[in-house]
From TrEMBL:
Entry protein name: Anti-anti-sigma regulatory factor
Residue ranges of every copy of the MEDS domain listed in the record: 2-158
Organism encoding this protein: Streptomyces zagrosensis
Domain of life of the organism encoding this protein: Bacteria
Length: 271
């Protein structure tokens, strides 16, 4: 993920932390070294329950990249990889279901690490996740990292997160509309405009796919608009909506099965 202020960073960090705790995972936050540990704790606790129980039982830790690499003082790709692997295996031995780390990439500036070496680490870390219950968010401050580095990292990681909770993002292509985030009342106009534009733009194509598989919430208003626009698209041979079973059930209850040109494709959520 990339962020441009402390609030957006804290939102994603806290959500990631509390999801890990709820799943029985060991969670470590490698925060911006410019922040005190108390500031980071307060940011997480302000967006969830008290951190004390998870801290006291050792499930949640606040650390730093310096501490992870210790006793080494210089960052190397091999050292960081080895230590994260060790932490994952240690978490499993302790009885946790996995290990997750929130890593603020401000450590690069703090350790004076070479950007090229950091990029190599970010693009050669797939083995950390293969066969291991390990997950990680790398958080980049857009005010410090160059645009070309951020673009490269966005392409290199398997997922690029939205920079805050509760927002809606729409990605358009010739025959696909990808909807990401939350389609609630605040994003209804954008959602509806995006669907309408896609139907208009691709009216001569044989198939339009509206991909809702990375949507976390679809309001009844947005769902109703989707079906109404689909029904009104008289020139289109076929429209496919890819969505998780919950969204599919909502659309069916609103009458999607009665629209002959509409096909629902149930898939696992892609986020």
């Amino acid at each position: 993920m990339s962020y441009e202020d402390g609030d957006s960073r804290a939102q994603i960090m806290a959500a990631f932390v509390w999801l890990g705790v709820a799943r029985g995972e060991k969670v470590t936050v490698f925060a911006d070294p410019a922040l005190s540990e108390q500031e980071v704790r307060d940011a997480v606790q302000a967006r969830g329950p008290s951190v004390a129980p998870a801290l006291n039982r050792g499930q949640l830790e606040f650390s730093s990249m310096r501490a992870l690499l210790s006793p080494d003082h210089e960052f190397t790709v091999g050292r960081q990889h080895a230590r994260l692997t060790e932490e994952t295996e240690h978490a499993l031995r302790q009885g946790y279901t996995g290990f997750r780390a929130f890593i603020d990439m401000a450590w690069v500036r703090d350790l004076g690490a070479d950007i090229a070496v950091m990029i190599r680490r970010e693009t050669h870390s797939a083995h950390l996740f293969t066969g291991r219950p390990y997950s990680e968010i790398c958080a980049y401050d857009r005010r410090w990292f160059a645009g070309d580095v951020l673009d490269h990292m966005a392409k290199s990681h398997p997922y690029q997160l939205l920079d805050r909770l509760g927002v809606l993002n729409i990605v358009e292509s010739d025959d696909t509309l990808l909807v990401i985030g939350e389609a609630d009342i605040s994003g209804r106009a954008r959602f509806t405009d995006g669907v309408r534009a896609a139907l208009t733009r691709t009216e001569r194509a044989a198939l339009l796919t509206i991909d809702l598989s990375r949507l976390h919430f679809l309001s009844l208003g947005c769902a109703t608009d989707l079906l109404a626009l689909t029904l009104a698209a008289t020139t289109r041979p076929q429209i496919a909506v890819a969505c998780d079973p919950y969204v599919a059930r909502t659309l069916r209850r609103l009458g999607s099965d009665s629209i002959s040109k509409l096909a629902l494709i149930e898939v696992s959520r892609q986020c």
